Structure prediction request, 230 residues.
Amino acid sequence: MKDIVKHFSDQLQELNPKGRTYDIVGYFDFGLMATKLVKSAQVGRAVIIDILSETQFSEDIVTDEFLLEFIFMFVSNEIPQSFRDKIFRDMKCEPNIDSRIRRACNEIRDFAGKGLVAPDLEEILRNSLKRAKLLATHRSEKKKKLTKLKTKMAAKWAKLAGKLVVIKPFEFNKVEDEDESMDKTRDLYFLPHDKGSTTGAVDFVKVDEYSLAIASEKIGEKLLDILNLK
Prediction:
């Protein structure tokens, strides 16, 4: 994870060595990387679209089976629910992760037609799985150190020069406790629970939307508002 963050940091430096600050947007594993980059002088504002905190990513143990199902659910968001359920059932009949990926891709091609499906879909899913495993491992390792880091973490965010904005999509009518849901998000991205320590540095923006619908008009409009691009 540190190597990936360094890669993007080096890219920002290469784009503008004179020190201009950038706005960045991240989701999935890049959401966590955005929290790291905003602590550098290169990023003036980072926006996270939180699609993870309402899933098992907020738990200590995450299996490969869950990761694959999560990724497939994300990439197949526009597929009719009945057909998506069929693919999930068929995937579970396969003996290993590779064969599950292969079967899912074949069924998507049969459903949508080869011309409408990326020819390298299997490679995309395998790379996405690797990224998901990297994120899950990083979170698990860092969470073990969290109790020791809480005081230092709050102090670092209090000194933050840039700004972090977290877009939090969830369906309001299905959430029993909004405060608990927001605390999950803070835990997922290792943000302090003490709101006073992040005053001015971290903002949360709630959007009444399905958590995986990152391409929705509601989230897009909110993102443009935050980045002042409208």
Remarks:
- Residues 121-144 form the longest helix (24 residues).
- Residues 2-49+145-226 form one domain.
- The chain has two domains: 2-49+145-226, 64-133.
- The chain has a mean pLDDT of 82.
